[in-house]
Structures are given as C-alpha cells and as structure tokens.
Amino acid sequence: MGQSFRINSEHTWNCFVANARALYDEHKFITFPAPRIGADRSLDQNALFHVWAREFAAYMMRCDVRDVTENQLEVTKKRLKRTFYGATGNAWMVYEETCPLTKRVEKGFTSSKSWGRGEMFEFLTWLQWIAGERGCLLESKGEYAKLQREQNQ
Questions:
Q1: Number of domains forming the structure of the chain
Q2: What domain range includes position 62?
Q3: What would the DSSP string read from start to end of 51-70?
Q4: Are 129 and 138 in contact (CB under 8 A)?
C-alpha cells in the first residue's frame, strides 16, 4: 500500500494490475485517484498558466474552452494578475512606464514568461485556489505538478 506506479510498459502495467488485485483481495474496496496522463515535463509552468487562464475564462463565461477569444483570454490574464497583485503586493509583477508625450507614469504587469520558477509556482497555487473557490477545478500538470509533489514530500 502507498506505492505509486508509472505505467510506461507492459511490465509496469502487469505490476500495477497485480498490486490492485492484491489490494482488492485483501480489502474488497479500493479508490484510485484520477491518473496523471503524459510525462511531467510536457508542460512548463508558463504554458500551464495560459491553459488555466483559458479554462477559467470559459468557466466564468459559461462557454466551451474553444469559444474563448484571444481578447477574452488576454483580459482574463490581466485581471488575474491584477487580482493577485492586489492580494499580495508582489513587486516582481509590476513595472512602471512613462508616456513620452504626457510624462504620465503608469503601472503595467510583467509578462508571466519573465517570472521566476518560485514566483510562477506562487501565482499558480493562488490561481488554482481562487478558481476552486468559484467551483472551477484546475488540474495540476507538468512542471507545476512535479513541484507540488516535491513540496508535499
């Protein structure tokens, strides 16, 4: 019990089946969590943010993910950044720009691809929580899921 399996061959499949059979024979009741499909390295944290932003936008607008326009996606990402910044005040998210004509200084949000690994992890953890609070479950994948598992060990 407590063993995890990475099934990537006939041999590991047979080991998993034998383990499941033994557990069932002993306990007569087993619940397996939903499997993670694909290799962990298949999705970096920045790519996951873009996937999640689209999924969250679709959930909030009650439409299919494929129906979220690029403009709606960009607005969603900007709103998420603004909300996270408001909650945390993390300076690494913000830059100031000065208009050359009016000399007016405005704040903008840095691109998520410029964020460090820890910064992106913090943001994704928050995003997964905030979406869950609204009933939208965002599945951990790729690099982010691997970092979560490492942190929870």
A1: 2
A2: 40-151
A3: HHHHHHHHHHHTS-GGG--H
A4: no
